[in-house]
Amino acid sequence: MPAAGYTTTLHIRLSAPWTKHQLVNHQQSTMKVLKFGGTSVGTVESLRNVKSIVESADEPVIVVVSALGGLTDKLISTARVAAAGGDAYFADYQAMVKRHHDIIEGIVPQEKRQQLYVIVNALLDELGNIYKGVSLIRDLSQRTIDIIVSYGERLSSAIITRIISDARLFDSRYFIKTLDQFGKHVLDNDATQKLVHATFDNASFKVAIVPGFISTDANGDITNLGRGGSDYTASLLGAVLGAEEIEIWTDIDGMHNNDPRYVQGTSPVSELHFEEAAELAYFGAKILHPSCVLPARLNNIPVRLLNTMEPQRPGTLIHNMPSTRTIKAVAAKDNIIAIKIKSGRMLLAYGFLHKVFETFENYRTSIDMMATSEVGVTVTIDDEKHLAAIVDDLKKFGTVTIDHDMVIICVVGD
Asked: I want to staple 9 with a disulfide (CB 3.0 to 4.6 A). Which of 32, 52, 73, 247 is the partner?
């Protein structure tokens, strides 16, 4: 049953808006929040594992799902092709339609397919019309990208609701709210907490399916929580509702003591403090976004990282308990740019570092690390979008040299 449709992707740096006084204190429930990423919902085989994991839960669960693996990036790239004009985008769009249909045919029970096709094809048709409009006007606004990328989670959640027994769909667009802050979407804490309680406190469910990542603003326009947004959705739901535990299911059995993509013989770390996990995530451990579990950390809710393909493995437990005195893991962050500002005027010069940091603040560029000496300072960044302008401004304070393709090695533990 073919349909029309399109896909996109958007990466926005997450803010960290949660503070302890903003969290609602409540007694923890026996409910768990389970989040399944794109690799966990990307194939028929992995979806069978998701079904088995969720249906074996003894307590009620909220299941937060991402778009099919790789789909968000495809949605964005297809939108950019459409913005160039013509119909070159259409082949990619058709491939997305086929992929969702293949998933339905491969795992959804026959008696549920007809109704599901009505829903899925309507979404795909909407997506296709958006792509067509982008192609005709040859323009792609940020608001249009936000709308396009939302279809990934809306489609996956509709399908997964029909796969899992006793599942009920809760649309996150109605209870995850954002504000605009300097052109970026950040969580609206107060509105989100009130709406989450209104949605779930008296709701009856065994399995609640929630599309991760997507949200809306005060006007009802579709927004999203940015990179790591599905983890963030799971974390804030667990925090607001007092979940017993938050489980993040991926294609790797927890956070390893080194990067298994490059180092042989790595092993998962059984336990980490939230601060250790954040450091590893920030400096290269791709399994977890460093900001996304902040609500869980502040509300003292443990987060467990598990492998959808090998659910029997214990994974990694992240908590607020004191850390053991040992080195836990090593991570590496590449594509780093080191900027050295050398100036004889720096010695005992009041306000020198303030001026340097103010330069980066003006261009909204985050600094990863800093090293100082009596006559200079070196900082590292991973975003070269405004590099030329930053260097020009820094030259007012001294001689500036740049080193590209650097790597930060991060050793985490006590």
From this structure: 73
The pair of three-digit structure tokens given for residue 325, joined into one six-digit string:
């005195």
Comparing 151-160, 210-219, 260-269, 346-355, the range with the smallest average pLDDT is: 346-355
Provide the token pair at 296: 């869980």
Burial per residue of 325-339, b for 16 or more beta-carbon CB atoms within 10 angstroms, e otherwise: eeebbbbbbeebbbb
Stated as kind and residue range, the H or E segment containing 155 is helix 142-163
DSSP state of 367: -
Q: 3-state class of 342 per DSSP?
A: strand
Q: 342: burial class by Cβ within 10 Å (0-12, 13-18, 19+)?
A: middle
pTM for this prediction: 0.83
List helix spans (H) across 346-385.
352-362
Q: Sign of torsion, CA 90 96 102 104?
A: negative
Listed in order, strand segments (DSSP E) in 323-398 are: 327-342, 369-372, 376-381
Pairing of strands 245-250, 303-307: parallel
**CA-derived radius of gyration, the chain:** 23
Residues 251/224/15/25 CA torsion (nearest 10 deg)? -80
Q: What is the DSSP string of 58-72?
A: SS-EEEEE-PSTTHH
Placement of tokens 């535990």 in the chain: 245
Instruction: Take residue 344 and report the two structure tokens written for it.
Output: 């004889």
* CB-count burial class (<10 Å; 0-12, 13-18, 19+) for 347: exposed
Q: Which helix (H) or strand (E) element contains residue 174?
A: none
How far CA 8 is from CA of 63, 147, 155, 239, in Å, comes to: 23, 9, 13, 29
* Partners of residue 178 on adjacent β-strands: 187
Tokens representing residue 160 in the block: 């997964």
Kindly state the tokens that stand for 22: 């903003």
Distance CA 48, CA 309 (A): 10
Longest dimension (CA), the chain: 77
pLDDT digits (tens, 9 = 90+) for 91-117: 999 999 999 999 999 999 999 999 999
For residue 223, report the phi and psi dihedrals to the nearest 5 degrees: -130, -170
Question: Using alpha carbons only, what angle is made at residue 131 by residues 129 and 134, rounded to the nearest 5 degrees?
Answer: 110
Q: State which H helix or E strand residue 111 sits in.
A: helix 110-137
Cα–Cα distance measured from residue 290 to residue 16, given in angstroms and rounded to the nearest whole number: 10
Candidate ranges 86-90, 275-279, 370-374; pick with highest mean pLDDT: 86-90
